[in-house]
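Changelog note: in this version the structure field was regenerated for every chain. One regenerated record is shown below for reference.
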Amino acid sequence: MPFDAETFGQQTLAESDREVLGWLEFGEAARHLAAAVVESGYEPDVVLAIARGGLLLAGAISYALGVKSCGAVNVEFYTGVNERLPEPLLLPPLLQEDALASRRVLLVDDVADSGRTLAMVVGLVRASGADVRSVCLYGKPQSAIEPDFTWRTTSRWITFPWSALPPVEASV
């Protein structure tokens, strides 16, 4: 079955309704965000990704900042284009919250859309006793929380390079 870019994601979105991020631009954005963190004076001990969307950005930022302590918290919220669960849901393996106590944590995600996932994880990390700052590639005007560091703000649906294509399937 050939890939159809127009219908991938269960809904068709007009090109004008999309913000498309390419790999080269992603690299520039990651460096820009790392520089913003450095310029702010915040020195994280840990870079924590909100998986899955924040994994690649967290890795890029951790390299750019020279921070070797990295981790991830697994959260499911989106199930398709503009389709989500009623509430964000933590998935295993669960975060070891006691490992974050008294640490400076840079929390990383791809987008603060509704902001509910980011707000939930910021609260979780703060409750562990950590000093947390958040960074997202994109913020959305309707987000319930504004990340501390954002590369761009848009109201459009975002096509990320890592999720632009459907999952790989075995050829028959």
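Spot check on this record: The beta strands are 18-20, 46-51, 70-80, 83-91, 104-112, 131-139, 149-153, 157-159. The first helix runs from residue 23 to 40.
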